[in-house]
Amino acid sequence: MTSLITTLPHAMRAIGLAFALSLGASATLPGAATAQGLFEPVVKVNGAAVTRYELNQRAELLKLLRAPADPTRLARQQLIEDRLKAQAAAAQGITVTDDQIRAGMENFATQGGLNADQMMALLERGGVSEQTFSDFIRAGLIWREVTQARFGARVSVTEDDLDRARAAMSDGTGVRVLLSEIIIPFEGPGEEQAMAKAREIADITSTGAFSAQARQFSATATRDEGGLLPWQPITQLPPVLRPLVLGLAPGEVTDPLPLDGAVALFQLRDIQETDVPEPSYSAIEYAAYYIPGGRSPEALGRAVQIGEQTDTCDDLYGIAQGQPENVLERGTKAPSEIPNDIAISLSRLDPGEVSYDVTRAGGQTLVLLMMCGRSETIEEAGETAALPDDDSIDDGTIDVEGGEGGEAAGDNTEQLSQQIAARRLESFANGYLEQLRAEARIIEY
Fold it and tell me: Is residue 8 over pLDDT 90?
């Protein structure tokens, strides 16, 4: 999950209005945070505590910024990630200065037509301390330094990359890709062995050899077909995967992509331009049904049985009837908010289809995923409208925001090259963050 500091700028265009609306209600000033238990930990990440006060403060900040998610849930997730990022920075000897943080605060505020002092004054009126805002900015800056130091040398953009990106963004055309996949699962100490095998496979350039490895090592439903996937629009791939695939020539394989309890690799078999632009998606609705037993024959058999008994996400409520509420989860998320392993699995599915190659709880729980529907983003006349492609998304709202006027379009080679490089760096950073989270000891109270 990328930091909110990189995912909120479009919303910051209206931040003045957001603050005006948010501050109409009475607020609790930071100085009043003296209640018993407010500074007790709610989470520990490798021993580093996140206090209830920090959680409350971050949630209030996200409310004021109108974050597109439940603020308390997102705040907890962000603060866990902030601890992981800080620990990674400390391990590499990376720090940021007070001047850098101040400049970051100014830059963030500028996106809403404010300066840092004006923004901090509004935040304080809303009950959010300057330290909370500073910590929010610090986390984004320090992660940028960590990922640049760790992955910057691995990011390059070729003329072929630019040509493919121009084709993907040009009017009247789209891009679709033909991929093969391998997802190698591991448990506990098996990660090192799985990653070593993945690095070997990443050097393969033969589609036949890649398929042979898929049949032997992959945990997906496509393993018996050698990992072969059908043609897919590039826009249907998860955000973490698109820049990696666009950087490949036919026959080449992505670098190993760390997931939760697994390592993924993808081989590009072919790439084509189409006569019409492929739709992009602003939101994906899906359901997750949790089956104990991991990848055991019994759990997989149960998943197959459920898949045969259900046609829509609503059918899963009948399957889960009489069981604990947390056995079934259903929701709608932006593509960038979906965990990479789930996003990769969902990318193969049409509404009503299921997959069961994702696990949780260290491989002890099998996750049956069902695609409920995708909200299609249609760009027209400088606006972006999110429209559902399935009746299951029926909240009656259409999200329309002013577009950037084709921010990445045109033939500005330097700007396009920077955007491609930034996306690739972000994909490496997301994979690294998932790896850190998988390896961390996280205790939630």
Answer: no
The answer, as to whether pTM is greater than 0.85, is: no
Q: What is the pLDDT of residue 318?
A: 94
Helices (H), 218-263: 242-246
- In this structure, the answer to whether residues 168 and 233 fall within a common structural domain is yes
Q: How many residues does the chain have?
A: 445
Q: What is the DSSP secondary-structure string of 40-70?
A: SEEEEETTEEEEHHHHHHHHHHHHHTT-SS-
How many CB atoms neighbour CB 418 within 10 A? Answer: 13
For residues 50 and 58, is the Cβ–Cβ distance under 8 A?
A: no
CA distances from 335 to 2, 18, 250, 266 (A): 11, 24, 26, 19
Residue 246: alpha-carbon gap to chain centroid: 18
Q: Residue 133: give its domain's CATH number.
A: 1.10.4030.10
What residues contact residue 114 under an 8 Å CB cut-off, 6+ apart?
Answer: 15, 16, 122
Domain termination site, one of 131, 153, 175: 153
Show the tokens assigned to 249. 């020539």
Tokens 């209005």 — which residue? 17
Give the structural domain span for 268.
159-278+409-444
